[in-house]
């Protein structure tokens, strides 16, 4: 009997409490958190090292913004699955990120159960469109 592989998740956020919340959420979804980055440079390094299935990426981070990280990763890994996270709903930034290749966008103040559903739905849609 084959066991379903766990999804590998990379979390990139400069706020420790947000990383903790996202890690807890991902573990509750039976995913494996393969890394946590606290700035944009570290996010890119960890992405290349860990090759996660999903990256949860904050927009506002030190050294490199989430938008810069997104563009750099998508340039090198066009199939990367990245969900942007932010506490601000600046529609221009959201649109830029989606146009640059982000799979989805989630506000950090979204209720946990709703966030769980949004991540699952985005991943399911991605798998359907890919296969």
Structure description:
Helix 2 (40-50) runs parallel beside helix 3 and helix 3 (66-76) runs parallel beside helix 4 (91-100). 27% of the residues are buried. The protein is globular, with a radius of gyration of 14 Å. The model has no long low-confidence stretch (mean pLDDT 89). Helices cover 49% and strands 19% of the residues. The protein has a single domain (8-130), classed as Rossmann fold (3-Layer(aba) Sandwich). The protein has a five-stranded parallel sheet with strand order 2-1-3-4-5, sandwiched between helices. The chain has 131 residues and is α/β, with parallel strands linked by helices. It has helices spanning 16-28, 40-50, 66-76, 91-100, 112-130, and strands at 8-12, 32-37, 54-58, 82-86, 104-107. The two termini are 23 Å apart.
């Amino acid at each position: 009997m084959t066991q379903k592989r766990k999804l590998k998740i990379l979390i990139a956020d400069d706020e420790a409490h947000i990383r903790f919340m996202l890690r807890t959420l991902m573990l509750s979804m039976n995913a494996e958190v393969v890394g946590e980055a606290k700035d944009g440079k570290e996010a890119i390094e960890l992405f290349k090292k860990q090759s996660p299935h999903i990256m949860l990426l904050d927009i506002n981070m030190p050294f490199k913004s989430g938008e810069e990280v997104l563009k750099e990763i998508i340039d090198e890994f066009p199939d990367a699955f990245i969900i942007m996270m932010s506490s601000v709903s600046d529609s221009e930034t959201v649109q830029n990120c989606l146009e640059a290749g982000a799979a989805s966008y989630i506000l950090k103040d979204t209720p946990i159960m709703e966030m769980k559903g949004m991540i699952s739905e985005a991943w399911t849609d991605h798998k359907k469109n890919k296969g």
